[in-house]
Amino acid sequence: MIGYVTLGTKNLKEHAKFYDAIAKEFGVGRMMDMDTFIAWGEMGGPAGVAITQPFDGNEATVGNGTMVALQAKDADQVKRIYDIAIAQGGKDEGAPGDRGGGFYAGYFRDLDGNKLNAFCMVQAD
Description:
Layout: E1 4-8, H1 12-26, E2 29-33, E3 37-41, E4 48-52, E5 67-71, H2 75-87, E6 91-98, E7 103-109, E8 115-121
Helix pairs in contact: 1-2
């Protein structure tokens, strides 16, 4: 149902590097690249993510309780994505681990403070 998710940014060119690194781990790149908007993913593929300068010209802000979840293929990829995010200047919001019920996730914030996670479902032992 979700086509893509867009997050506001205060510095499009600099903060795009954060998402370039994460997208590379997923095996995708930029599918749209404009002066005020960049989107990562595959045309016709699963939902992508984008960052944009707000259309109204006001400062980008973080939604309280808003989070983007990036579906990884396995727990190892969750860890790699989390590590990439932190290495790119992201902030830790919860290291990768089992959250119960087979839900495995690592939480982080991007350079603008937007909350994301990488997650997968794992078989219980």
